[in-house]
Amino acid sequence: MAKEINKSEFEQNVLEGKGLSVVDFFATWCKPCQMLAPVIEEVSKKFENVSFYKIDIDKENDLANKYYIMSVPTIMFFKDGNLVNQVVGYRSVEEMEELVAKFA
């Protein structure tokens, strides 16, 4: 399950965390984001050793600016606190599973 986090939780859980963290930068008004949410939930069940997080760009504007989020959804992959991949737009379950498996 993807947990919605704020800036301080992002720093603690993602940047200082170990292993793979998948971070979904989303907006509540974004239709592709709404379509992606159940995909991420399904993928998170398969990869129990991976942390899944959501960041609402309207609530956490500073983080969105820091990572140059220009379009949502943007999914970022952090391994041991380092950004290792980034994709923009909707992805199917199969595509998300492939992306996560690459770094898990």
- Largest sheet, strands/sense/barrel: 5 strands, mixed
Shape: globular
Number of strands: 5
Percent range for β-strand residues: 25-35%
- Which range best describes the helical content: under 10%, 10-25%, 25-40%, 40-55%, 55-70% or over 70%? 40-55%
- For the termini, the CA-CA separation is 16 Å
Provide the structure class.
Answer: alpha/beta
Number of helices: 4
Unreliable residue runs: none
Mean pLDDT: 97
- Rg, rounded, reads 12 Å
Major beta sheet, strand line-up: 1-3-2-4-5
Spell the H/E element sequence: EHEHEHEEH
Features:
about 100 residues; alpha/beta
Lay out the secondary structure.
Layout (H helix, E strand, L loop, with lengths): L2 E2 L2 H9 L4 E7 L4 H16 L4 E6 L4 H6 L7 E6 L2 E7 L4 H11 L1
Parallel strand pairs: 1-3, 2-3
Antiparallel strand pairs: 2-4, 4-5
Helix pairs in contact: 2-4
